[in-house]
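Re: [help] complex structure
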Amino acid sequence: MIYCPKCGTANRRGSRFCNECGAPLPMRTALRCPMCGATNPIGNAYCDKCGARLIPMTVPPFEESGREQAPIKGLSLPTIPLEEKQEQQVEDVAEGVGTEERETEDWLTQLRASTMEEAEEPETTTEPIEPVEIPDWLRDLGPVSVKTQATPGEEQPTTKAPLEEALAVPSPAVGEITERLQELVPAEVPDWLREMAPPEGAPPQAAPPAAEAAPEEAIPATPAPAPAEVPDWLREMAPPEGAPPQAAPPAAKAAPTEVPEWLSGLEAEPAPPSAPTTPAFEGVTPLLPPEPGTGVAEAEGLARAEIPGWLEVLRPRPEATEAPAEEGPLETEGLLEGLRGVIPPTLAIEVPAVRESALSPEISEVSVARAQLLQSLLARPVETPRPTARKRGISMGERAQRWLVAAVLVIAVGGMLMAPLIIPREDIPTLTKPAEAPEAGRRIEFQRLKRMHDVIQDVHAGDAVLVAFEYGPAEAEELNLVAEPILRHLLDQGAHISVVSTRPEGKTVAARLLSGIIASEERYTETQYARSDYRPGGATGVSQLLTNASTPPHTPPELILVLTAQPGPLRWWVEQSRLQARGEGAPAIVAGLSAALEPAASPYLDVSAGQLEGAINGLGGAAAYEMHRGSAGRATQRLNALAVGHIAIVGLMTLGAVLYALGGSRRRKK
Amino acid sequence: MSSLVKRWIPVLLFGTLPGLVVLAGYLIPTSQTLTYFRDCLVEWAVIVAGFAFFLGMFNVLRIHGGRVAHLRKGWLCSLVLLLAALAAWVPSVLPASTTIQKTLDHVTFDYVISPLGASLAALLVFTLALAAFRLLRARGSARGVFFLLVVAVTLLGSTPLANLEWLADIRDWVVNVPGMAGMRGLLLGVALGTVITALRVFVASERPHSEL
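Output below.
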């Protein structure tokens, strides 16, 4: 979860903005997109903003020997698989590759910028070496060596054995150079190299493998040449399998004098530069000059070839070779497909803007101690405590608003309720006009009230009336005022009231109200208020209450009065009473409802539906009913307070709207 | 066989069959037998609903009693709840119409339950008034302004204010035209949902009475 720094709301992990207040949420650790620079949560495979891929194919890192690199999730990783690297190291050790050669191989390997997959296809790796790009030092290497070999005073190596060895070991150094030069720059190939090539159309038996010619002189440490590294012309020279080695004289014996001495000198090395196990530049690697002072050529008196500028630039610096090779991941899709290490995503940590400190750069002991403490804390295993939502205090403005609303309501409503105690009732200004005004007669509300009045007026003395008290103490302040004029009307008609309810507290509420009404008038008698029944179960309870009320010895009700502030009980009573009593004998249903329930009761009050004969809603309806009957009661007395309360609330709404509208426009201007 | 005994027979016996009997009792009211069984089943349902109250009360007592017994967090509030439940329960078990029963009932209802209920209702009015005051802060849009206008007209139109009868006319139209249309839609939705749920119970596609 991410907790909003502004309001403290807990938001889902990865959210950018607060769901409550819309404030941007901090992203402490993120991946920065290499394309657009947007920060993305750790774990994103694609950038949320531009859709660029953040985590390409991850490959185990290419590591230097004895150095483990911790994998970093979400970052571009080197490309050489660990298994292949281990195999390569094992092969190197078995071949006894020296450190110098390893060094040379490493930095050349970096130049390849490719994986071992490419190394398995040496032909493809040699493609970048265009023939026209072959430097002069490579072309001139032959004659210079010859001249060097001809220098007097130096020990001349035997020519036969090294030559045979050179041909026996199809060194890519010699073979590949010759082949490449013949194929690519035939016009510039020197004659001494061209003469080494076999004549076209020569029988393959003419050049048996040199390895058979001098097998005892083969250096054990020489790596086994890969089949792909054997030049074609040498392969063609190979005898057919099974052919006796004596069948043809070795070609090497026939051309010892034709091989330049510089080449023989190279072959005379005790440890000839073995070709790398996976050479990228076939034929070039052995001829590359080693490090100054350690080169084999210098030891043999050979002039060190000059490395062309373009190759020298690519030579890594000593410090660069110490760092692990960073090869980007291979892009497998999109425009960058096939490229490697293109703008890898970097781990970004958002650091809040910090002003430059004006403190002196001297580090005190206290600072050192604090730094050590911080370091020790950071070194501990991370136990991320769950951040607690910040307690949101109430600002002074909000507090003032609450007090303002409370004060206005108390003064307005309470003042109107307390006014009759202070000043005579006749002097209190009347804000309302609930009387049966001519203009009120056309209103739907008044028509429903009038129908209800007429239905109750039709009740005769002794008729059973079922009164459902479906409200509790919380709604009693409103619904008691609504029920009172209706119950008085029923008692005036001499009806026999039976109280029922599906709420546990309904029975008590009814007893309190009816006892008060009966006690207030001498003409009312306790016998008019018969029994009270309670059934739980919602609609099922209503069904059973209706069944019981219609079952002897009870008299079936002539009228059902529903008093409620909830839509559920109203629906139960309407549906169950219509279901049980059909046809002409169905009792009429009227309702005394809260003001808030009027929209819910409207469909039942439709004249065509005939489900509710009539209803009054809220204090206004009760006051109108009282006025319709010509006797002002408690509802009429409280109507002024209700009107003032409504006016006060509308005034508060208007004030709040104006204040916040002005505040909003001011914020927008800023 | 096991599935038939464990799942389908109870479902058919206690779910589908009673539902069909009650439904048939309402659809064929002339059949005295069906009506009798219908009334019996409805009465059983009422008894079960009453027993649910007992189970609920027992659960409340068990949870809060355990909290008080082990002095867990909030045990004091639980103790007050238990005492209040006991005080409300005692008058109902005392012999009716006795003086002590009437007194306890009167005190409990008139001085505890009713004032608390009325206070909660008044608090709701205050909360709604405060929300109306701050409405444009949360929804400062045209819809918020329109909502405020509708609320103001409905509030003032509900009161028969002198010389503002035109507000009552507007309020009547709002309640009886768009308000009633919406309410009819809700009622139709409830009715259709009830029918579908009943059918699912009848065919045992839904078994709210069984965990099988």
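Residues 192 and 260 of chain A are 7 Å apart (CA to CA).
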